[in-house]
Design goal:
- The chain has 200 residues and is of the alpha+beta class.
- It is 65% helix and 20% strand.
- A four-stranded antiparallel sheet has the order 1-2-4-3, with helices on one face.
């Protein structure tokens, strides 16, 4: 009976298994490398896209900041123009009020009374004058109280003096408040009560 030597056959099978193992290991290494490359490329692409988005957002934010600064500058200019407009309107109103006030004072000052000086501080008016009698000063105070443009006439000082010709004279100082009525309303009220009382 002949014997068959199986050693070469077994050696070839082991060699084939080793070759398969190395081939599989190499394939796994290549596959892992491919997966890593694909993942790395995808992550880099995502990072690049995100960076582009960030750059775009930063650029737009810069544009918005510039626009906000321009809007703020325009607001400051608008506020300044509005303030100037209010000042001009106030001056125009004060000019009309001053004319009305002087007209009212002329109408309210009785005969025998002379206004020497007039100063105004906002709504308060200080009057300094001379009168032929103390009663005429009282008449002036009552006339100012009856005015639709004036109120709270308060005497500060009434002092007897002597005029240059030796006649008796009364120097007085009083304060009166402006009611801040409109020119039209003041003119309407002024005409009504004054006409009824027969004031000049």
């Amino acid at each position: 009976m002949n014997k068959v030597n199986l050693l070469p056959h077994r050696e070839e099978k082991r060699k084939a298994r080793r070759q398969q193992f190395f081939a599989l290991a190499g394939l796994l290494v290549v596959l892992a490398g491919v997966i890593w490359f694909v993942g790395f490329t995808a992550i880099n692409g995502y990072i690049g896209a995100q960076q582009e988005t960030n750059d775009y957002l930063e650029k737009e934010i810069g544009v918005l900041k510039k626009q906000i600064d321009e809007i703020s500058s325009l607001k400051v200019q608008t506020d300044a123009l509005l303030a100037r407009k209010q000042v001009i309107e106030s001056l125009q109103g004060n000019r009309a009020e001053t004319l009305t006030l002087f007209d009212e004072l002329i109408r309210r000052v009785p005969d025998g009374v002379r206004i020497v000086s007039l100063t105004q501080d906002n709504q308060k008016i200080d009057l300094v004058g001379e009168s032929l009698s103390e009663a005429r000063v009282s008449t002036l105070i009552r006339a100012l109280e009856e005015s639709p443009l004036l109120e709270r006439a308060v005497p500060i000082e009434i002092r007897a003096t002597t005029a240059a010709g030796g006649n008796a004279l009364f120097s007085f100082q009083l304060t009166v408040m402006i009611t801040r009525q409109t020119v039209d309303a003041g003119a309407g009220k002024k005409g009504g009560p004054s006409a009824a009382k027969g004031k000049p």
